[in-house]
Amino acid sequence: MRSVLGVTMAAALLATATSHAAETVYVGGYGGSTEQAFKEKIIPPFEAKTGSKVVYVSGNSTDLLAKLQAQKGRQEMSLAMIDDGPMYQAVGQGLCARIEEGSGSREAYPNARMIGDKSIGIGFIATGLAYNKEVFARNGWKAPDSWQDLTNPKYKQKVVIPPITNGYGLLTLVMMARLNGGSEEKIAPGFDAMIKKVAPNVLAWEPSPGKMAEMLQTGEAALAVWGNGRVQAVIDQGAPVEFVYPKEGAVALMSAACVVEGAPQPKLAQQFLQYVLSAEVQAILATAQGWGPVNKNTRLAPEVMKRVVYGPEKVGQMIAPNYGVINAQRAEWTNRWNRAVER
So which residues are the signal peptide here (predicted)? Predict the structure, then answer.
């Protein structure tokens, strides 16, 4: 009898384990070095702990948002990690489910919590300037220190900026507006500066992180607008590149995540999100990606601490864009940008 019971229990446990092991969760996120960090350092321990399979779907924020919109009601992705601007759009369109509170989210800074509790920041990024030190030294140029450097004619055909469909291009437009008497509510001065002063200097409006990195590494681009995390990945490869916090302030760009509304494996997606928010994974993202930890209990090595947005004081100093205004005008701005800026 014991033998039969033992066999039955063993079979049940095996069936449960097999069923659990078969669970697959699709996670959408950034490509390039971010994808590499997730695949090599973050996903394997989660799979080992849960017996599940995590499939990473890479793409930029705009592409991933478009996938969520196209698949509404029949979602394939269970978790999406995109820039905070597009994330506000996703939440507004009912694409995100409410986040179930867990240890990771409870330890997050208050300003990582996004309105409605349907999305949350997973990394603080400072948007500023990056430059190739060798190109600057060869030309006798001093290091850039201002957003206005993008308008300097000496950098003609030496600047690279992502397009407006990428968070970095959008925030460049916002800063040009703010520095020329405008704002998110009054964007015309920003477009005027972009068209007349910035665009003539731009070699490429580059959407690909890999291509951006290559252009900075080779010196094809001398000056760029990018996030400190992306720049750090290039520096780690040995490139003579440096990130600059402009004197007017770096703009806060938060990587955010949400569990997709109506997606398969919602519980596993919630579990993976809390795992990404944990102090341990936040330390990995800070070290590998240069993302500022959103978990206030994250501890970093001193050399890592210096190069990321770390601690309440530094987090509080960054410029916060008004995405309520931005997202209401995003389609109109994109059309205008495509007509007049990226000609």
Answer: 1-21
Q: What is the pLDDT of residues 221-241, one digit of tens each?
A: 999 999 988 898 899 899 999
Tokens of 211: 């291509």
Among candidate residues 241, 261, 296, 232, the one with its CA nearest the CA of residue 99: 261
Contact of 190 with 327, CB cutoff 8 Å: no
Pairing mode of beta strands 79-83, 251-259? antiparallel
Distance, in Å, from the CA atom of 139 to the CA atom of 162, rounded to the nearest integer, reads 24
Entry pTM: 0.73
CA 23 to CA 265: how far, in whole Å? 8
By the 8 A CB rule, do 260 and 269 touch? yes
Alpha-helical regions (H) of the chain: 2-21, 32-37, 43-50, 61-70, 84-92, 103-106, 133-139, 167-178, 188-193, 209-218, 228-236, 266-276, 279-289, 302-307, 311-317, 323-340
Q: How confident is the model at residue 63 (pLDDT cuts 50, 70, 90)?
A: very high
Write out pLDDT tens, residues 79-132: 999 999 899 999 999 999 999 999 999 999 988 998 889 999 999 989 999 999
